[in-house]
Amino acid sequence: MEKVENLLNQQLDALLTDESDLVANMANASALLNQYLEKINWVGFYRYVAAKDELILGPFQGNVACMHIKNGTGVVGTAFQKDKAIRVADVHQFAGHIACDANSKSEMVIPVETQAKRIGVLDIDSPVLDRFSQEDEEVLKEFVQVFVKHID
Questions:
Q1: Which residues pair with 88 in a beta bridge?
Q2: How far apart, in Å, do the first and last CA atoms of the chain sit?
Q3: What is the per-residue pLDDT across 55-71, written as a single tens digit (0 to 9) for each?
Q4: Which CATH topology does 2-149 take?
Q5: d(CA 50, CA 28)
Q6: Per-residue pLDDT tens digits for 16-65
Q7: CA-to-CA distance for 107 and 136, rounded, in angstroms?
Q8: Minimal CA–CA distance to 81: which of 113, 129, 57, 59?
Q9: What whole-number distance in Å separates Cα of residue 109 and Cα of residue 79?
Q10: Which residues, 6+ apart, have CB-to-CB distance to 27 below 8 Å?
Q11: How far, rounded to the nearest angstrom, does the alpha carbon of residue 36 sit from its chain's CA centroid?
């Protein structure tokens, strides 16, 4: 499996090389993950807007989504506020879960930040309970590190 993850990160690195536009990079990163990950129904980014203290929908793959999430609310806002990855086996058991898609049952959110700025989060939903493993979390954290390398 390690070779597959290395290939994913190499693909992302090549895809984003010489591109500095954040939105374009988010779009291609979410498309790449959508192709790579199985049993997901949504993958994309929420961008942090400090003036409003909220996360605003960014590029994604999947069904329509919530456009504004207050910092500290839902899985997305909580992961951003706590500045740590959150893996939720059953979103219906997460206090304050925001149901943007009734089909979503589990979720993984990884904060995205450079050394100078908090950018937002990478959010992935699945229609399968307990879809995301510790290994998935580690792979996605590495993916975000490669992503950040191109915006830092």
A1: 107
A2: 28
A3: 999 999 999 999 999 99
A4: Beta-Lactamase (3.30.450)
A5: 24
A6: 999 989 999 999 999 999 999 999 999 999 999 999 999 999 999 999 99
A7: 11
A8: 113
A9: 6
A10: 59
A11: 14
